[in-house]
Specification:
The protein has a single domain, classed as TIM Barrel (Alpha-Beta Barrel), CATH 3.20.20. Helices cover about 35% and strands about 15% of the residues. It is built from ten helices and 14 strands. The strands form four sheets. It has an eight-stranded parallel sheet with strand order 10-8-7-4-3-2-1-14. The chain is globular.
């Protein structure tokens, strides 16, 4: 099997946290249980997606606050919080609070851009300021400054019997160095590097004009190299790859059939760029751990990283996720040279 220049150091997973809108409690509980399972298996990190006005986790920070009280070691991340839905000051308070509760284990991932279907939600989200909102990189800078202790107010001191701070409280030292930017273009990779952020890649990239043929791995590898070329830490700058990877070592025949059908339905979108933005999707990887390790070692994006956050498919059952995570930790990870924490 080909070897990479970067042995796999960290192995994590990402979940969307689906729930039944008629009874959302069990779905949220299942998400917390899968995070607990990840910790028991020795995985390094658990990440939750962010879904507004859908039947997936709409408030990952709140879910991770609960997860801090049910875990002790595993890192907890958001992949990603779309900042167009957020007030950076309020989000900075929430992130710092959860980081304190976790003992410094929070890894916030964020992204920019207007909210999805903005014209349909702007009256509820920004009834008076929709036209004036900054949905670009400036919103990330505001969050970074506030998390890192820049002044949020021109007043600090005592007023009556109350004491006020001019910076976000609680302040969590170190949190500002653990913020990740989720990007899929050369521009976003360069910008994230210049800001000294960490870089979250996924199964989506945006090809540059003139790119072709459409090779996802090559494009992703170029973006990762561009990020590190612009980062103060250079080759040591942290990048995580996030593909959909489904090991089948202990899966039943029915599970394998479900996984293969899921990947086959999503395969056509990987042949050419999709939608107005021209996004290119990576194929989902399904197979035994030995097969997956061989495919990953040959992947130009994987060859650039030493940590991964593999995404769990959207629509599977809790028992499927348990099987996938168990195989990931006991079969696939070791096949990639990874060792469980602890």
């Amino acid at each position: 099997m080909p070897s990479t220049s970067r042995p796999l150091r960290k192995l994590g997973f990402l979940t969307i946290g689906l729930f039944d809108p008629a009874d959302p409690g069990p779905g949220h509980e299942a998400t917390l249980e899968i995070i607990e399972l990840g910790e028991r298996l020795g995985l390094d990190s658990a990440w939750v997606r962010h879904r507004h006005l859908q039947h997936g986790i709409s408030s990952p920070v709140a879910v991770l606050a609960a997860a801090t009280q049910r875990t002790r070691r595993i890192e907890l991340g958001t992949a990603v919080i779309p900042l167009g839905w957020e007030n950076p000051l309020r989000l900075a308070e929430d992130l710092a609070t959860v980081d304190i509760l976790s003992g410094g284990r929070l890894n916030p991932g964020v992204s920019i851009g207007p909210p999805l279907h903005f014209d349909r939600v702007k009256d509820a989200l920004y009834p008076d300021t929709a036209a004036a909102e900054d949905f670009g990189y400036g919103r990330v800078r505001r969050l970074l400054d506030l998390v890192r202790g820049e002044r949020a107010s021109d007043f600090s001191g005592t007023e009556g019997i109350e004491v006020f701070s001019d910076i976000v409280q609680p302040h969590s030292p170190g949190l500002g160095q653990r913020i990740w930017y989720g990007g899929g273009s050369l521009r976003s990779a360069r910008w994230a590097g210049e800001q000294g952020l960490r870089f979250l890649t996924s199964n989506v990239v945006k090809p540059e004009p003139g790119d072709g043929p459409w090779d996802f791995g090559t494009i992703q590898g170029e973006q990762i190299r561009a990020f590190r070329a612009h980062h103060p830490d250079g080759e040591k700058a942290r990048v995580s790859q996030g593909l959909v990877v489904i090991p089948t070592d202990s899966a039943s025949a029915a599970q394998r059939a479900t996984y293969e059908e899921y990947a086959a339905k999503r395969l056509p979108r990987t042949s050419t760029p999709q939608g107005p933005a021209g996004l290119l999707f990576a194929p989902d990887l399904v197979g035994t751990s030995a097969e997956l390790a061989e495919r990953l070692h040959a992947h130009p994006g994987f060859q650039e990283v030493d940590e991964v956050v593999f995404a769990l498919p959207f629509s599977f059952r809790p028992e499927d996720y348990a099987q996938i995570l168990t195989d990931m930790a006991t079969k696939l990870g070791p096949a990639l040279g990874w060792h469980p924490a602890g």
